[in-house]
Amino acid sequence: MTELKTFNRTEIPNWCPGCGNFGIIAGVKKTLAELDFKPENTVLVSGVGCFAKLPYWVKVNGFVGLHGRSLPVAQGIKLANQNLNVIAFGGDGDGYGEGGNHFTHACRRNINMAYFVHNNGVFGLTTGQYSPASEKGRKSKSSPLGSTEKPVNPLALAISAGATFVARTYAGNLKEMVEIMKKAILHDGFAFVDIIQPCVTFNPQHSFDYYNDKVYYLDDKHDSNNKLQALEKALEWEQEEKFACGIFYQE
Ligand SMILES: Cc1ncc(C[n+]2csc(CCOP(=O)(O)OP(=O)(O)O)c2C)c(N)n1
Ligand SMILES: [Mg+2]
Q1: Atom 12 (ligand 1): residue with closest C-alpha?
Q2: Could you tell me if 45 and 74 are in contact, meaning their C-beta atoms sit under 8 angstroms apart?
Q3: SS3 235
Q4: Does 51 sit in the ligand 1 pocket, CB within 6 Å?
């Protein structure tokens, strides 16, 4: 196993104290170490947002692209050198809003790489506008009377767009997150993981306490090889304020 400290940089992340991104970066480093990846063979690609700074602080190759554009860059890197371990990162604004089109096509294109979306339900870096993942009614500086839009359902979208691995995990559960990240990276094809990430500054109502109460885990009753059951499970979320975590679909 590669030692975890291999991936540490000396600089300290400047995310807000208590940000869910600290859990995600810890999960990424642990995953890379447990998969025995070498820094020289690993590339992390991001777009724009608080989440997008993650490659700054992991000692591997990194590329910070334009807003919503991590997927085209990551797909290009993978096509140019298929021996590289390529992981793309998105934010809920970045990946489901600005980059929504790339998301749909990356799912059906099924290139062998992983895509992790830090879903904090808000445009964080630009200080708290409602995002495509914000719930209906969210009051924010760009929706002072409450958002009138239904949120995107990223898991249902990915399954119907043709992704061959679709999962949700939670930044507050490192152990489960690392298991999902490892499986996503080892999956032969496009693996998408929506990561629930509290933003303590601009979406404080969705705190770790809130999610600790609402998150639950898929068990053996869920057949992740059954696409219709996976889609039903993903659509269930629209009816209940609960967050199922685990592998929804894989083929
Ligand atoms: C094309 C484009 N539109 C808008 C912006 C401004 N912008 C920069 S970061 C950001 C919000 C990012 O939100 P999200 O992707 O959810 O990431 P977070 O900061 O929440 O981690 C926006 C709108 C930009 N840089 N480029
Ligand atoms: Mg966000």
Answers
A1: 49
A2: yes
A3: helix
A4: yes
Q: Which domain holds residue 208?
A: 4-250
**pLDDT, tens only, 153-171:** 999 999 999 999 999 999 9
Paired tokens of 53? 């700074």
Secondary element (H or E) of residue 31: helix 21-34
Give pTM, 2 decimals: 0.98
Total number of domains in the chain: 1
- Are the CB atoms for 53 and 44 separated by under 8 Å? no
| pLDDT single digits (tens) 185-199 | 999 999 999 999 999
3-state class (DSSP) for residue 158: helix
CATH number of the domain to which 225 belongs: 3.40.50.970
Tell me which of 22, 94, 203 to substitute to probe ligand 1's pocket, judged by most ligand atoms within 8 Å of the beta carbon: 94
Q: In what order do the strands lie in the sheet with 85-91?
A: 61-64, 42-46, 85-91, 113-119, 190-196, 165-170, 243-250, 215-217
**Which DSSP letter does residue 188 get?**
S
User: Beta strand 85-91 with 165-170: parallel, antiparallel or unpaired?
Assistant: unpaired
C-beta of 120 in contact with ligand 1 (< 6 A): yes
Structure tokens at 228: 């219709």
